[in-house]
Automatic annotation (TrEMBL):
InterPro entries xrefs: DEAD/DEAH_box_helicase_dom, Helicase_ATP-bd, Helicase_C-like, P-loop_NTPase
Lineage: Eukaryota, Fungi, Dikarya, Basidiomycota, Agaricomycotina
Protein name: DNA 3'-5' helicase
Region entry Disordered, spans: 619-648
Organism: Cerrena zonata
The UniProt record lists the keyword Cell cycle: no
SMART domains (UniProt xref): HELICc (SM00490)
Short name of one Pfam family: DEAD
């Protein structure tokens, strides 16, 4: 009997997937895929951004290839339908949309089933359930859709269920938290898997599934007993992500959020997670008001919002703008963006009053997804002083259930045990390892990527091990930089210089030949603005290199940039010389006009005749006319006349 979970099986899977995927799989990914191909249920707990999607996509690509190749069917012993199907439950619509784009890029026919897509299709006269039954390879649905008549019709079709080879649940940890909190459909996913038949393999993935009760609850929910499933648990610590805890100085229940004034000044791509849509709207308004006071910034482009009230198309447009546009710096988000959203250029993630450790780690997991673009990612929790006191009570009581607290809002909130331990821990990484039962070290990977770029050994840089000095929230008047008149750049000069530097940016982008990094990574608009603001303080190329030391993608082109700045300097001097000539010409014309007026006899005679007694108008003393006390003197004279009349 052929086993995929063998050296021959691993080799065959890599051979099949090599021409189908734009990347090489890690060993732990191949391990899970092969277990699924052997018909064993899989529970994979790996870090955010580690490639959990491959457990679904690569598995289906292998099944498709085997179903089309008779020799592979004979070799592996798999009897497959012509079109094997997988159903995957995703917790958010945004994640469904993003995964659909990815699956389609691999050539997998994908249908997304949620209330929004089904309604839109119905308006256009299309039954999306019928489309899924006949044409789909990947069916992505929201958990609540399993309770609809359309889903019942789908799985009651015997031909469809025979083709269904896998049922997946991404972010399966949410079955614990969201299933208890507001969406009971998450708890019904395990029961739904049993309706699909024993030939349907189960694939569960997450980055945050704590040891003990949380793991046991998931296993019971999906009917997985010991020995009936394969567990892959890798450390979910992200060594390239710095975890920071800051205590709020101001309130977050009003309309002023002074603790976040530094965000716009940092110029770092930032996602801010708020506790509710209402709080997000208030923070969005506050940040846009701050941005409106910064010259050259469009507040609506600089700060965007992502939440469940937005149309899916709008949320997708916000993500694309953040991914590709340098002007979009901040996204104010809610839990709708918490899981699965893959933005490669997020530098900072800020979380307001986190209560649950799973949710906190999922949210900050949006940062630093691509180490080629983001070299220093940060996940920052903003907590209240009351939360610290509550955490101490929870640890002292040593119970798992939440304890009520208030932090300035109208309703009470709660902390779970994991979050309480994280708040009080001297080392945040150690607390995370303990809560999730992370292995001391992951087994080494033998893929070509890890061989070329072996994982770096990092020392812990959390705020417990490396205390930070948080930014000052009080507003200080910015020192004004004195600029000499002959060094001041006019609006015309700046426009011309920005055009040239943008052209230079496009030139080095094409020279680099990278299809991964967008052009603005090499020379961002904010860097161009800074170069022009400090243009005459850069006296040599060493100063320029020091000023741009953090722009690693630009450093190979420093010499060319210095030559371009020299060209700008020459151009500025030419423009100033032309402006000086224009000023001299205007001054000369004005002088000539004054001389012509002085020599004009008609002009002089007209002035004399107007100011003479013969014209019938009284001559006025200019000193009296311009005296500030003239009105007061008149008033005094009038008062004296009135007094004299009374005496008479």
């Amino acid at each position: 009997m052929f086993l995929f979970s063998s050296p021959d099986g691993h080799s065959l899977v890599r051979q099949i997937l090599k021409p189908k995927l734009p990347y090489e799989l890690h060993d732990f990914q191949v391990e899970g895929i092969c277990k699924s191909l052997d018909g064993v249920s899989l529970l994979a707990v790996t870090p955010t951004g580690s490639g959990k999607t491959a457990y679904y996509a690569a598995y289906m690509l292998v099944l498709q290839e085997i179903s089309r190749d008779v020799q592979l069917q004979e070799r592996t012993g798999l009897d497959l339908p012509d079109n094997p199907v997988m159903i995957i439950a995703y917790p958010t619509i945004g994640l469904e949309v993003e995964m659909a784009v990815y699956f389609r890029s691999l050539g997998l026919n994908t249908v997304v089933l949620n209330h929004h897509t089904v309604s839109e299709a119905r308006i256009q006269g299309v039954n999306l359930w019928t489309t899924a039954r006949k044409d789909a390879t990947m069916i992505l649905l929201s958990p609540e859709m399993i309770a609809t008549p359309g889903y019942d019709t789908l799985i009651e079709d015997e031909g469809f269920t025979n083709c269904t080879r896998a049922f997946g649940v991404d972010e399966v940890h949410l079955c614990n938290f969201w299933g208890e909190k507001f969406c009971l459909a998450f708890k019904q996913l395990g029961w739904n898997h049993r309706r699909l038949g024993s030939h349907t393999v189960l694939i569960l993935t997450t980055a945050t599934l704590a040891k003990g009760r949380d793991t046991n609850t998931i296993l019971d929910m999906f009917g997985l007993d010991s020995g009936e499933y394969h567990l892959i648990r890798r450390s979910n610590v992200r060594r390239n992500l710095q975890i920071i805890f800051r205590v709020l100085n101001g309130s977050i229940s009003g309309s002023v959020f002074s603790d976040f004034d530094w965000v716009l000044k940092s110029h770092r791509k930032t996602v801010i997670f708020c506790r509710s849509i209402k709080q997000g709207d208030r923070l969005l308004t506050y940040l846009r008001l701050l941005a409106s006071k910064i010259p050259g910034i469009n507040p609506k482009n600089r700060i965007r919002s992502y939440n469940a009230l937005n149309w899916p198309d709008l949320n997708a447009e916000v993500l694309e703008s953040f991914r590709h546009m340098a002007d979009t710096q901040v996204i104010v988000a809610t839990d709708a963006m918490m899981v699965g959203i893959d933005l490669p250029n997020v530098e900072d993630v800020l979380v307001l009053s986190p209560e649950n450790l799973d949710e906190f780690l999922q949210k900050i997991g949006r940062a630093g997804r691509s180490q080629l673009i983001v070299m220093k990612a940060r996940g920052i929790a903003f907590i209240t002083k009351q939360a610290i006191q509550l955490a101490k009570k929870i640890i002292a009581a040593d119970h798992q259930k939440s304890v009520k607290r208030t932090d300035g809002g109208k309703r009470g909130h709660s902390l779970d045990m994991g979050m309480a331990c994280m708040i009080l821990a001297d080392c945040k990484t150690e607390a995370q390892n303990n809560h999730y039962n992370n292995p001391p070290s992951d087994s080494p990977c033998g893929c070509a990527t890890c061989h070329r770029f072996p994982p770096a050994i990092h020392t812990c840089c959390c705020s417990g091990c490396v205390p930070e000095t948080p930014p000052v929230t009080s507003r200080k008047r910015k020192a004004r930089v004195m600029v000499l008149d002959d060094e001041r750049l006019s609006e015309e000069m700046r426009t011309w210089a920005k055009t040239r530097l943008t052209t230079f940016r496009n030139m080095i982008y094409h020279d680099a030949g990278s299809s991964i990094l967008p052009p603005y990574i090499y020379l961002p608009d904010l860097t161009i603005q800074t170069l022009l603001d400090e243009f005459y303080t850069l006296h040599d190329i060493d100063q320029l290199r020091l000023r741009l030391a953090k722009r690693t993608h630009l450093l190979p082109y420093i010499d060319a940039l210095w030559d371009e700045l020299h060209t700008l300097r020459v151009g500025f001097e030419t423009m100033r010389h032309r402006e000086d000539q224009d000023k001299e010409l205007r001054a000369e014309r004005t002088h000539q006009e004054k001389e012509e007026w002085a020599n004009d006899e008609n002009f002089i005679s007209g002035v004399l005749s107007f100011d003479s007694p013969q014209c019938g108008l009284p001559l006025m003393d200019s000193s009296i006319h311009n005296s500030p006390g003239r009105k007061r003197a008149g008033s005094s004279h009038k008062s004296q006349s009135t007094a004299s009349k009374r005496q008479r």
